[in-house]
Design goal:
Blueprint: H1 5-18, E1 23-27, H2 30-41, E2 45-51, E3 58-63, E4 77-79, E5 88-89, E6 103-108, E7 111-114, H3 115-121, E8 125-131
Antiparallel strand pairs: 1-3, 2-3, 4-8, 5-8, 6-7, 6-8
GO molecular function: rRNA binding; structural constituent of ribosome
Family: Belongs to the universal ribosomal protein uS8 family.
Pfam families: Ribosomal_S8
Length: 132
């Protein structure tokens, strides 16, 4: 059993980028699916597919690279809130990643969203990870 499934998700993506893989398979959960949707909407991954095989299912993520230079779209993806030390951000303490060039993915009462969307909806929540 994995104690931190979100850290496992981020590590699989990070390892696949370092190995220049095109596709990475990750065991699915509802939170991981929402994080994948946010990454796709913000242009950090090329595509994704949810497969319902077995009791859990898998997420197939197609990673995005620059067509000429082969530089990955995700330069860094870091876990912020850990099971041993949760990090929460209110409206006034919302993080800005690379002065607005990156995104912070938050789990709020209105769902999983970026820091900009949370500011616009005037909600706070748990800071899951930083992506840039």
């Amino acid at each position: 059993m994995n104690t931190d499934p979100i850290a496992d998700y981020l590590t699989r993506v990070r390892n696949a980028i370092k190995a220049n893989h095109r596709v990475v398979e990750i065991p699915a959960s509802n939170l991981k699916k929402e994080i994948t949707k946010v990454l796709f909407d913000k242009g950090y991954i090329a595509n994704y597919k949810f497969e319902e095989n077995g009791p859990q299912g898998t997420i197939k993520v197609a990673l995005k690279y620059h067509p000429i230079t082969k530089v990955p779209a995700i330069r860094s993806i870091n876990r912020i809130s850990k099971p041993g030390l949760r990090k929460y951000a209110g409206m006034d303490t919302m993080p800005r990643v690379l002065n607005g060039l990156g995104i912070a993915i938050l789990s709020t009462s209105k769902g999983v969203m970026t820091d900009k969307e949370a500011r616009a909806q005037n909600v706070g929540g748990e800071v899951l990870c930083y992506v840039y």
